[in-house]
Every structure is written in C-alpha cells, then in structure tokens.
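Q&A log
Question type: sequence-to-structure
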Amino acid sequence: MLNVLVCVSGGGTNLQAILDRIADGTISHARVVRVISNNPGVYALERAKKAGIPAKVISPKSYPDREVFNEALLRGIREADPDLIVLAGFLVAIPPQVIRAYPGKIINIHPALIPSFCGKGFYGIRVHEKALERGVRVTGATVHFVDEGMDSGPIILQKAVDIPQGISAADLQQKVMKEAEWVILPRAVELIAEGRVKLEDGHVTILERQA
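Response status: OK
Response body:
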C-alpha cells in the first residue's frame, strides 16, 4: 500500500477527488496518511478531518524566514514517512532540500497542457485567463513529477479540454477541474501505486498492467 501525503493551499477539491477514488475503490493500492496546508482555516483541512486523516498547518508566516520554514516543511513531511507527495493546489515553491530528499516521489497537478501556460506566475485562475487571452481552442491539465524548476518536471499524464466560445475564466477553471484534474490526478496516484510509472532519463513510461 502506497502512503500518500497531500499538500494543499485552499479548498482541496483535488484532495477530495483522490479521497473519493479511494472510497469507491478506483484507487486500491494507496492511502492518504497526512495532509499539509500552508494556510490555516482552508476547507481542505475540513475535508481531511471528515475523512479521518491527520492534518498539519505549516505556514511561512509562522517562521522568522524562508529557510526555517523550509526545514519545518521537510520535518512535517518526514514525520508522515510518505512514499509519494502529491501537490494538489499547493501554492508554495517546494524547497530544494525537499526535492532532494524525495527524488521522483513528488507529483504536481497543473491546470494547463504543459509546456503551455506554465512556469513563474502561472497558477490558479491566472492560467485560464491567459489561455482565454491567447485564444487557444484547447486547454487541459497535466500531472508531472516535480524537479527544481517551475513546472519543468517529467510529464506523467495529460488530458485535453475543449474551450467553448464565450466562456469565462472562472467557468473554464471549473470545467478543467471537473473534466481533467479530478480525472488524471487520482489516475496518476493509482498508476504509481501499482508500480506502473517508470521514470528514466527525464521521461515517463506507463507500463502495462501485469496479468
């Protein structure tokens, strides 16, 4: 059984998607053992409480500087002894020491088809605003491994979503979540739990299920 730690910053809809797929058996080889949030009072913490999952708030505002926060975050992760760390709307740059401690064991969900609309400054609804400004016809979501760059790690899964004419950024955000993010993030967790994700030379291969 794969022990998963989920990091969140807000409402926790992607966390809920994972919990729902565990509950219905779609994810059968993984369990969430801890939730970490950088913000107190967010609804993601309530979701964790309802599911009986230990949760911890580790906020940069509670520490004198970023380096002390980074060490506290690493300690909070290590306490849970996770096999996989899932960034599910975690609006904090992952410290290099965390990435070095968990190489190939951190994944992120990004609300666009990387390499489009990603990198510094592209998060939350801003991603969808920029997609609409550019006039693209298709967007989507990407699950990727986390490296020391910004949205630059090896891609695991992607799912495309058509953009209807006249849609607002807020409605597009919801559409991408429902049609892509909530589908491929749980799928990636289960694939990794099944040992079917092979990371080699910066590229991912999805292995066939063994008979």
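Response note: The mean pLDDT is 96.
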